[in-house]
Design a protein that fits this description.
The structure holds two protein chains of two kinds. By secondary structure, chain A is an alpha+beta fold. Chain A is built from 13 helices and twelve strands. In chain A, a hairpin with a 6-residue loop joins strand 11 and strand 12. Chain B is of the alpha+beta class. Helix content of chain B is 33%, strand content 12%. Chain B contains five helices and five strands, in the order E-E-H-E-E-E-H-H-H-H. In chain B, helix 2 packs across helix 5. The longest helix of chain B has 16 residues. The chains are: A alpha+beta, B alpha+beta.
């Protein structure tokens, strides 16, 4: 590990002015620092800031402090009752030990687990901009089928962020100049394009302080994840689904996907194919067609296209109960 | 910097890059906690910090000023083994034993999580926990045993959980 300076911040305001990489849970950053994939000159320890509370908002939604550990969030009574898709997504990720350390803010910003990003002997535009992408034409089983570019085909690894995308979460940040921003989670992430090293729209030293959830959505919620092992593995494909039926038709649908793309994926065309339709195989297949219209196989990951289709249809069947 | 380890106040001046695992093993002579993968994948380094199980390899020692740390060395009372240690012996919950300190510390933290009512990925409902074999396996999935002593590890933990219930 390259050496660095270390300072513990006493407040969020101090942290953003300190000019270093933020560290809280550290489970992803330290992993990458040991491999010298991340080599920060300065670490700013934010782990003791007062950002670990879950609070009810005036509008009936929830405010989740950026330092709330994944395990506490999954087991929070309000989250289990009103946002079970979020509890389920969190519980589907990592291990008990990691969830005890990993934070809400850090989970959103975790880096890809692409094997070529992790291997410093390999070309990777995300790790070393301009060096190329050894994943393209390589072993592509885990790579993206949506949203990738000729410069990067890595996927975003988070389960939590997929549920938050379906829940229309808002990411609250603090900038060094004192500005606070509220960013829709769909706007937080950037697709790789020609600059895969830039993964979010956050500015340097901008700190995520909280994540806000709107009031509990109507309808049923499910998180389904397909992976190579029954536990403790990243998603090959996952779906966070929220569907409400009214008068025999789908009145509300929110569907977000993990394992498919460089960001937690959500496509309005998928939901448009469902809303106003009775729950039926025809409607579900139309939704899957919409999701996968732009899907591209890199070879080894071609199986994700039928897998995503089947997972979406099965999840929609479960969400709509006996209606289909 | 100072912290409490196994009930004892300790001081150390760790290298800024040292993980809590390296501090325990190299600076404090507490070699019961094992280094397996050093990347949070195997769980051999599992310890309790402020009552919660974590991977000691994935946290910087300098971030633990004033924390309360429990390692495998802190579980027995004199010659009297902790119930989990005793159960692992009785159920033959190991072969080579390298993962065992991490398994036992992880099980200790896990049983506390169950007592708090925390659900898991395999819980049929979120608000009630019944600790069966599937639950134990899921909750212990962050601890690998390359000898594959898993059935006996699960039995040992189930034994202690039943005794506590």
């Amino acid at each position: 590990m390259k050496t660095f300076t270390y300072a513990r911040a006493d407040s969020a305001e101090d942290a953003v002015k300190a000019g270093g990489r933020f560290i809280a849970g550290g489970t992803n950053l330290l992993d990458l620092m040991k491999l010298q994939i991340e080599t920060p000159d300065a670490l700013v320890d934010i782990s003791r800031l007062d950002l670990a509370r879950v609070e009810r908002r005036e509008d009936g939604g929830l405010s989740i402090g950026a330092l709330v550990p994944n395990s506490d969030l999954a087991a929070h009574p309000d989250v289990m009752r009103d946002y079970p898709v979020l509890s389920r997504a969190l519980l589907a990720g990592a291990s008990g030990q990691l969830r005890n350390k990993a934070t809400t803010g850090g989970n959103l910003l975790q880096r890809t687990r692409c094997a070529y990003f992790y291997d410093r002997a390999m070309a990777c535009n995300k790790r070393a901009p301009g060096s190329g992408c050894a994943a393209i034409g390589g072993f592509t089983r885990n790579m993206a089928i949506l949203g990738a570019s000729d410069h990067c085909i890595a996927t975003h690894p988070s389960d939590m962020a997929v549920a938050m995308r379906a829940l229309d979460a808002i990411v609250v940040t603090l900038s060094p100049d004192g500005d606070r921003r509220r960013i829709a989670i769909g706007d937080l992430y950037r697709l790789p394009g020609t600059t895969p090293q830039i993964e979010t729209m956050l500015a340097p030293n901008e700190l995520i302080t909280a994540v806000e959830l709107p009031p509990a959505p109507r309808g049923a919620q499910l998180y389904r994840k397909v992976r190579d092992r029954a536990s403790y593995a990243f998603a090959l494909v996952s779906v966070a689904g929220i569907v409400a039926m009214e008068d025999g038709v789908i009145a509300h649908a929110a569907l977000a996907f993990g394992g498919l793309a460089p960001m937690p994926w959500r496509d309005p065309d998928v939901e448009a194919a469902l809303i106003g339709q009775p729950a039926s195989t025809t409607a579900f297949e139309a939704a899957a067609d919409a999701l996968l219209a732009g899907a591209t196989s890199q070879g080894d990951n071609g199986f994700k296209i039928p897998l995503a289709r089947r997972l979406l249809i099965a999840t929609l069947r479960d969400l709509t109960g006996d209606a289909a | 910097m100072q912290f409490t380890i196994n009930g004892e106040r300790r001081e150390a001046e760790p290298d800024i890059r040292a993980s809590l695992l390296d501090l325990l093993r190299n600076d404090l002579g507490l070699t019961g906690t094992k280094k397996g993968c050093d990347h949070g994948q195997c769980g051999a380094c599992t310890i309790l910090v402020n009552g919660r199980r974590i991977n000691a390899c994935l946290t910087l020692a300098v971030m633990h000023q004033d924390d309360t740390i429990v390692t495998i060395e802190g579980l027995a009372e004199g010659d009297a083994l902790h119930p989990l240690q005793d159960a692992f012996v009785r159920h033959d919950g190991y072969q080579c034993g390298y993962c065992t300190p991490g398994q036992i510390c992880s099980a200790l933290g896990m049983l506390d999580e169950v007592a708090k009512g925390w659900p898991s990925h395999v819980s049929p409902v979120l608000d009630t926990v019944t600790l069966d074999e599937a639950e134990i396996s899921e909750r212990m999935s962050g601890n690998l045993c390359r000898c594959s002593a898993y059935p006996n590890i699960v039995d040992a933990i189930a034994d202690v959980a039943e005794a506590q219930a």
